[in-house]
Fold this protein.
Amino acid sequence: GQNIDQPTEMTATEGAIVQINCTYQTSGFNGLFWYQQHAGEAPTFLSYNVLDGLEEKGRFSSFLSRSKGYSYLLLKELQMKDSASYLCGGSGSARQLTFGSGTQLTVLP
Amino acid sequence: DAGITQSPRHKVTETGTPVTLRCHQTENHRYMYWYRQDPGHGLRLIHYSYGVKDTDKGEVSDGYSVSRSKTEDFLLTLESATSSQTSVYFCAISEGGSLYEQYFGPGTRLTVT
């Protein structure tokens, strides 16, 4: 399978900006996505990038560099409700998504 | 709300027993997926379906089988449950043109003792 690496845990302060990085093998992925998962709940889709560059969606933005096998999710104006696990992943030629293990973000007051 | 339900939501079973989990959708989506989620491993695809009676294996399909006899139902069967299959199981659906944007059901927590 594809190797996807993201930090296990991050902590940030309410109102701040946080960047969650994700790296992956450069071969095989056609695009990269991000999901949010609150504790005890199902994952919910946030964004995906198939082209290099930054995609902005409200307080959340996602960046992709295919040549570097690198993506990040940028969360602005952090709120307490943003405390969750953030999963990055990608899809290759088959109709299958490969997820990373997730980054647990804790937002402190 | 993508109209996805899973049943049961919680189950405790003994090693060696068969277990069937059900995923039901109300919006006629073509693609349905079964994942398991374990600490340290993230979400891993077990099987998926791209239509009635059309299924394919995912990354961790050993020990699992699936069936889809109706568009709305996708069943996951553990023929003989093992302790390593203790996990949270999520069903998901997607629109035909959007592989990345999947909608997940609430999950089933399965414990095999």
